[in-house]
Design brief:
The protein has about 325 residues and is an alpha/beta fold. Helices cover about 35% and strands about 20% of the residues. It contains eleven helices and 14 strands. The two termini are about 40 Å apart. About 45% of the residues are buried.
């Protein structure tokens, strides 16, 4: 239930209403919109006399939240969530540009790519230290040493860091080095991991699962937000369909749908969405035109010899050209880089 308080209600009254709702065993989450306190009372409300609650001092209105993803819905939080990371405000008029290699392979590689993407206009460097690979014999990442290299390379060029966390036990370690914790597509419904990043005081980049519906994706975000972490960035990265020409089918429909249903920012990963280098730029341009809040793109100076995802990685000069194209589209839409 959404409990709307009267505008201008004293904090003591707002706190009293929240505490009384908790006495029913409900979890109470607060947001403020247009000068009004909004309390989301979540849980088993079968024993609650809502008519009586509506008569409490300070309560203006009660509304049912009509979707299962309560806290990430616009019904609970009508205005866009903006998440500040380094020099970027994700979800604002500024587009978030995240770029870097699929995997950190070594010092020289990381620093070279960091310099290239920063020069092109990226504000956040992506890079994997723990790699979830289909084959157990493929490169699995450098672990903590990879995180250290990623952090040093990013810091040297004024970039924030996003890196994937694989399981709940890794969260404190990855959070020590990364500014954003990425939950990959294969882990979108790893609920113990979602709860753990929900307790972390770091933004979370939540990728859509390989064959997940938009509602399932938003419900996974709900798991994180319900634990107290509202800093969630959604990432559309393509879903598995009957089409096999591209690696996945990039669902650009998801951008306006999510924007309508949720207040969370949404970015797009055209690298995994297509899996083909020369298809990345067209899909990146289309994503921004469709209203995405940013892009996460794989870039490698020598993709033919990359240890993972070389065929979908852009050369640095291709990435720089794409950023200039994105800049033109952003201007038309009234957004900036």
């Amino acid at each position: 239930m959404l409990v709307l308080l009267r505008k201008g209600v004293p904090e003591t009254v707002a706190g009293d209403v929240a505490e009384r709702l908790r006495m029913f065993g409900l979890a109470v989450h607060r947001t403020d919109h247009d000068g009004q306190v909004r309390l989301g009372a979540i849980g088993d409300a079968a024993q609650v006399d809502w008519d009586a609650v509506g008569a409490w001092d300070g309560v203006a209105e009660l509304r049912r939240i009509p979707v299962p993803f309560k806290l990430v819905s616009r019904a609970f939080h009508p205005h866009d969530t903006i998440i500040s990371v380094g020099r970027c405000a994700i979800g604002s008029g500024q587009l978030a540009l995240m770029a870097g290699p699929c995997a950190i392979e070594g010092e020289e590689q990381a620093f070279r790519i960091a310099e290239a993407v920063a020069s092109a206009g990226a504000t956040i460097m992506r890079g994997g230290a723990y790699k979830p690979r289909t084959s157990p014999y493929s490169f699995q990442g450098l672990g903590e040493e990879g995180l250290k290299i990623l952090r040093r390379a990013a810091d040297a060029h004024g970039l924030a860091v996003v890196s994937e966390v694989m399981d709940s036990q890794q969260v404190p370690l990855v959070a020590r080095y990364a500014d954003i914790l990425q939950v990959g597509a294969r882990n979108m419904q790893n609920y113990s991991l979602l709860r753990e990043v929900g307790h972390a005081e770091k933004p979370v980049l939540l990728k859509r699962g390989l064959a997940s519906t938009i509602e399932e994706w938003l419900m996974s975000a709900e798991h994180i937000v319900s634990q107290g972490n509202s800093q969630v960035v959604l990432c559309e990265r393509g879903i598995r369909t009957f089409e096999t020409y591209t690696r996945n089918t990039l669902d650009l429909n998801a951008i306006p749908v999510v924007k309508e249903l949720s207040h969370l920012p949404v970015i797009v990963d055209p690298s995994h969405g297509t899996g083909i280098r020369n298809k990345v730029a067209p899909m990146a341009r289309a994503a921004i035109a469709a209203g995405a809040d940013g892009l996460i793109i794989e870039v490698h100076h020598d993709p033919d010899h990359a240890l993972s995802d070389g065929p979908q990685s852009l050369f640095p000069e291709q990435y720089a050209e794409l950023v200039q194209q994105i800049r033109t589209i952003a201007k038309v839409l009234g957004r900036t880089l």
